[in-house]
Design goal:
By secondary structure, the protein is of the alpha/beta class. 36% of the residues lie in helices and 22% in strands. It has 15 helices and 21 strands. The strands form 6 sheets. Strands 2-1-3-4-5-6 form a 6-stranded parallel β-sheet, with helices on both faces. Strands 17-18-19-21-20 form a 5-stranded mixed β-barrel. A 3-stranded parallel β-sheet has the order 7-10-13, with helices on both faces. A hairpin with a 2-residue loop joins strand 11 and strand 12. Helix 10 packs parallel to helix 11. The chain is globular and about 60 Å long. The two termini are 38 Å apart.
């Protein structure tokens, strides 16, 4: 069969799609150029917010003409929406042939066989360790010099707004020796940057080895020039992890540390497990250890009962920290989470106004911080063509800033220095200066 995988959501979903593609390739199937030539369509979905979930069902509706034209087209719903909705998927869409949860991907071959032989509508939502046990070397990775390794799955937290523990299950970590073996193989295959993935990656543990120990071991893998890890929970950002970030040259000076709110009362209602002061303390410790660290965060605007004063506390947090990037969203009620029981006292219009205010402030901060880099030299790893089009390449700095510059495809996957000539709030523009480094 010819297959096509469409992916929504985070890096974890992106890598899960690579694993699904690896399973299909091992079965002898090959990727399709477009949806019209596909015999199998997998929708790997995200349910972290209501809007993301509804996009999936809207997309399914748009597939009706294609399914009518080609009734033998197999459509599978995978990922977090599949895990969350289960049988409801079949009730909402007659187009879906099977449902597969994110921790049950190993059953894809048997499910396909069942669909093709009996035309039944199977479902597997068991929370096994398939995504952790899966041999990452079999993943069908996309082009470029960067690769993901899933080192842990699931989350043991009970944040009131979050559906991840429901869709991804309890925490389980991949053995360190397997992670190391995969990193060595990725290096030999030409990858130069590895990002360790986990819903709560700071909680990684394999016996006596915690995340800091894993980073130190990966630091010794020849050929891997850059190491990143995401997503981090502030509670588990230990002194040992911060020390490893300072002492290991390969560990990038970048961290995504979701704050969610700058208000102590909102953080308490969210059950985040830390206060504003404790979060700021972590930021201060990070910046003392890694002065040029690039920081990003997540912010939820309009959490149930959020007052104007509580929202102002979040704006103040942005001014105090001056993040390099903020992913901000209005609160989205998710079925089965405790926040739904609190009600949603903040009107939609007010949420949107607050979101706009927050994003405007953050754009000002990012523009100012990026403009301070004009004239400087930055090292980039070239990982693709820019959205600007033409012969403009893009690369990332160790602090995770995007840099656009003229160049040719021959520089893909190479390290080099770029002189920053201009800066906007979301990216830098520059000129390639230094000859590529291997």
């Amino acid at each position: 069969m010819r297959y096509l995988i469409q992916t929504w959501g985070c890096q974890m979903n992106t890598h899960d799609s690579e694993k699904l593609a690896g399973i299909l390739e091992a079965l002898g199937h090959r990727s399709a150029d477009d949806i019209r030539s596909a015999d199998l369509l997998l929708l790997n979905t995200c349910s972290i917010r209501e809007k993301a979930e509804e996009k999936v069902f809207s997309h399914l509706g748009s597939l009706r003409p294609l399914k009518d034209l080609r009734p033998d087209l197999i459509i599978g719903l995978c990922g977090c929406v599949a895990q969350q909705k289960g049988e409801e998927v079949f009730r909402r869409s007659k187009l879906v042939d099977f449902v597969l949860g994110p921790r049950a991907i190993a059953s894809l071959p048997s499910i396909l066989e069942e669909v093709r032989s009996r035309r039944s509508r199977p479902m597997d939502r068991e929370k096994r360790d398939d995504s952790i046990r899966y041999d990452a070397l079999r993943a069908q990775r996309g082009p470029g010099p960067r690769a993901f390794i899933t080192v842990m799955e699931g989350c043991n937290k009970t944040c009131t707004y979050c559906i991840v523990p429901t869709t991804r299950g309890r925490e389980v970590s991949k053995p360190a020796e397997i992670v190391l073996r995969e990193a060595v193989a990725l290096s030999r295959a030409g990858y130069r940057e590895v990002e360790l993935l986990g819903q709560n990656v700071n909680a990684y543990r394999d016996g006596a080895i915690h995340l800091d120990g894993l980073l130190r071991r990966l630091q010794e893998v020849d050929g891997i020039r850059r190491l990143r890890f995401t997503t981090s929970h502030p509670t588990h950002l230990s002194e040992e992890i911060i020390l490893a970030m300072r002492e290991c040259p390969s560990v990038c000076n970048a961290l995504h540390l979701p704050a969610q709110s700058g208000s102590d009362s909102v953080l308490e209602r969210m059950r985040r497990g830390y206060t504003r002061r404790r979060y700021l303390d972590r930021i201060e410790r990070l910046r003392r250890a890694v002065p040029d660290i690039g920081l990003s965060t997540d912010i939820i605007v309009g959490y149930p009962g959020e007052t104007r004063s509580e929202f102002d506390d979040t704006l103040l947090l942005l001014r105090q920290v001056e993040f390099d990037q903020v992913y901000s969203f209005v609160y989205s009620p998710r079925p089965g989470t405790d926040a739904v029981l609190e009600g949603d006292a903040v009107k939609r219009e007010e949420k949107e106004c607050r979101l706009h205010e927050l994003q405007s402030l953050q754009q000002e901060i990012q523009r100012r911080r990026n403009q301070a880099l004009v004239g400087s030299m930055v090292e980039v790893l070239v990982d693709g063509f820019s959205r600007m089009g033409g012969s403009i390449l893009k690369g990332r700095t160790t602090s995770n800033r995007v840099v656009n510059f003229p160049g040719t495809a021959s520089r893909m996957g190479q390290f080099g220095s770029v002189q920053v000539k201009a800066a906007g709030p979301n990216s830098l523009e520059g000129r390639w200066i230094e000859a590529p480094r291997s």
